[in-house]
């Protein structure tokens, strides 16, 4: 891109046709602070020199594989926008299956649920549920203070008041109590699969991605302790090849109604189970 010349939107798209068109549109929207409809209605719009310089820098980052969400510090989840940074996992479409599963098990949105989310990251799951179930109380935990700080920004952004955050490594700092629902999207990628991951994913924090024991270590820790805190459902996201092992682990600790649910790619992505102390 020649930044000595003020280029039009159309020129920029032609010069960067090796990039995904949606990526270019997102970067143009970010730089111009305009909706996507503006880009198509004004393809001859000329960027000024400052805009050209900024866009060139962002395009170079994208060409090197940096995820769009980290470039613009934002990602959409379940129709809501969330701030992201290099300390957090980028919210993924398949994780929306957790929300869908909660909606099926708890279809009364006026219900006063006690919900625990372990490893909240951006807070996208907890905040989405806080908006869907405004009478519920939600505890969101993470073992990183910098991540908790970002979660607070998203809580403020979405103006929800029914979430409490706790700095905790899984259950370590949570006072013993009973929750109606425990949710987690923990690290579950096996270190053996690191060489199979795309360049974008490797920009994300390793401690949010990888887990020992072929990706099962953190899931097993959660399952082994969760029943002490649960009077209801547990919903866990896991790897593409984990579902049978997760179901067996849940059965080992006397969970009931154990079911795995497929994502849009027909992969078992979430497993749900019920625990009742009687």
Task: Give a brief outline of the structure.
The chain is an alpha/beta fold.
Give a structural overview.
With 278 residues, the chain is α/β, with parallel strands linked by helices. The radius of gyration is 21 Å and the shape is elongated. It is built from twelve helices and eleven strands. The chain has a seven-stranded mixed beta sheet with strand order 5-4-3-6-9-11-10, sandwiched between helices. A two-stranded antiparallel sheet has the order 1-2. The mean pLDDT is 94. It has helices spanning 9-15, 21-32, 36-41, 49-63, 68-72, 96-105, 124-132, 145-158, 206-209, 212-215, 217-226, 243-252, and strands at 74-77, 80-83, 114-118, 137-142, 163-167, 179-184, 189-190, 210-211, 230-237, 256-262, 268-275. It is 38% helix and 21% strand. Helix 2 (21-32) packs antiparallel against helix 4. It has two domains: 9-64; 77-275, Vaccinia Virus protein VP39 (Rossmann fold). A hairpin with a 2-residue loop joins strand 1 and strand 2 (80-83).
Radius of gyration based on Cα positions: 21 Å
Strand content: 15-25%
CATH third-tier fold name of the largest domain = Rossmann fold
Please write the CATH class name of the largest domain. Answer: Alpha Beta
Shape: elongated
Annotation, overall tally of beta strands:
11
Share of helical residues: 25-40%
Structural class: alpha/beta
Termini separation: 67 Å
Regions with pLDDT < 50 over 5+ consecutive residues?
none
Order of helices and strands: HHHHHEEHEHEHEEEHEHHEHEE
Number of structurally distinct domains: 2
CATH architecture of the largest domain: 3-Layer(aba) Sandwich
Number of helices: 12
Output mean pLDDT. 94
- Major β-sheet, in short? 7 strands, mixed
Physical arrangement of strands within the biggest beta sheet: 5-4-3-6-9-11-10
Task: Name the CATH superfamily classification of the largest domain.
Answer: Vaccinia Virus protein VP39
């Amino acid at each position: 891109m020649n930044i000595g010349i003020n280029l039009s939107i159309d020129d920029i798209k032609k010069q960067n046709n090796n990039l995904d068109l949606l990526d270019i549109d997102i970067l143009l929207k970010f730089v111009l602070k305009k909706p996507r409809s503006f880009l198509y209605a004004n393809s001859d719009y000329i960027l000024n020199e400052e805009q050209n310089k900024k866009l060139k820098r962002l395009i170079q980052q994208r060409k090197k594989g940096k995820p769009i969400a980290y470039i613009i510090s934002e990602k959409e989840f379940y129709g809501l926008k969330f701030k992201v940074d290099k300390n957090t996992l980028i919210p993924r479409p398949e994780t929306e299956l957790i929300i869908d599963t909660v909606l099926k098990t708890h279809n009364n949105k006026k219900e006063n649920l006690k919900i625990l989310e372990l490893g909240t990251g951006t807070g996208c799951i907890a905040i989405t549920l806080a908006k869907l179930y405004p009478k519920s109380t939600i505890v969101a935990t993470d073992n990183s203070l910098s991540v908790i700080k970002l979660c607070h920004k998203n809580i403020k952004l979405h103006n929800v008041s029914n979430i409490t955050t706790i700095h905790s490594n899984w259950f370590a700092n949570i006072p013993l109590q009973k929750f109606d629902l425990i949710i987690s999207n923990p690290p579950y990628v096996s270190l053996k699969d690191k060489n199979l991951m795309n360049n974008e994913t490797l920009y994300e924090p390793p401690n949010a991605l990888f887990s020992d024991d072929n990706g099962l270590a953190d899931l097993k820790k959660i399952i082994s302790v969760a029943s002490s805190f649960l009077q209801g459902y547990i919903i866990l996201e896991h790897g593409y090849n984990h579902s049978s092992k997760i179901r067996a682990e849940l059965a080992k600790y006397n969970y009931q109604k154990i079911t795995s649910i497929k994502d849009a790619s027909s992969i078992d992505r979430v497993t749900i189970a019920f625990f009742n102390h009687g």
